[in-house]
Amino acid sequence: MRGTGSYLPSRRVESDGIARALGLPPDWIESRTGIRSRSVAAPGQAASDLAAAAARRALERAGLAPGDLGLIVLGTSTPDELGPSTACRVQALLGAGRAAAFDVSAACTGFVYGLQAAVGWLSTQRGAAPYALVVGVEVYSRFLDPADRATSALFGDGAAAAVIGPAPGPYGIGPITLGSDGTHAGDVLIPAGGSRAPAAPETLAGLGHTIRMDARAVRGFITEIFPRLVAEACEEAGVKPADLALVVPHQPNPRLVASLAAEAGLEPEQLAIAGRDAGNIGAASLPHALDAAVRARGLKGGDLVLLAGFGAGVTWGRTLITWPPT
């Protein structure tokens, strides 16, 4: 990874205000999730706008220009429109005319899936523009039912990006493991607006264009998958949890993730948690936490960094990075 960057919209919404609007005690959300506040996009601000802002910061930290990019992969569940890809919108906003661009739809695991696509592409390239941009972005605020505490308490808006390119051995992104279980596709979804339930007066009246989540099923999935991803990554690499310099999970519920990390044998200082003031920002959640950790802590050459994503679909993915020298 050559550079990371994040962008959170400037408008902030505090958890205590949402709790009061839901008729709950002011501390109800934060005490259960650890989320204090989240960002909300301004009217007219689309996913591509947030993504481009994060991408510019990642490029700046990588010391590269948009013209150095050969590929843009963008993960999102809240695109600008159903087509074309939001990645193409970002390419135009950046002026990255040499870059191929496409979206991946893997919900909150979108960044890890995007990494796999980018790493595969890089392995085939020879010559010019050997850099790829992987972006995660969500504008969930446009798809929330304010009266649904299962979703309005958790989700926020934001974007994060990473520039990846060649790295000398033994540094770089290790093998990427992906998985999915489509029998749980109904656990988290936006039911209307696609070919199964096209937009119609009935879907609008029934709030079919807002996120619906089976909170109990999702919690059960997270409780099982996150510790498993940590254990499998360590076993495959022949290391112990204590050998990991940083573990960067998806951030659906910071309090739950921190508890599960302890069960997996991780110390608090090994864990990257950035969801307290961002909420669940889906495909942007993991790269935002990575970017925040890189800027706040710094990483040294040889540090082992585990990325562990999981989300709707259900989907999951992980990779172990040997951080390059700066």
TrEMBL record:
Metal-binding found in the keyword field: no
EC number(s) per entry: 2.3.1.180
The protein's enzyme class: transferase
Transmembrane stretches, start-end: none
Keyword entries, A-Z: Acyltransferase, Transferase
Gene3D superfamilies cross-referenced by the UniProt entry: 3.40.47.10
Occurrences of domain Beta-ketoacyl-[acyl-carrier-protein] synthase III N-terminal (ranges): 102-182
Any Pfam family: ACP_syn_III_C
Biological-process GO terms, alphabetical: fatty acid biosynthetic process; secondary metabolite biosynthetic process
Entry GO MF terms: 3-oxoacyl-[acyl-carrier-protein] synthase activity; beta-ketoacyl-acyl-carrier-protein synthase III activity
Chain ranges of the Beta-ketoacyl-[acyl-carrier-protein] synthase III C-terminal domain: 234-323
Protein name: Beta-ketoacyl-ACP synthase 3
Species: Actinomadura litoris
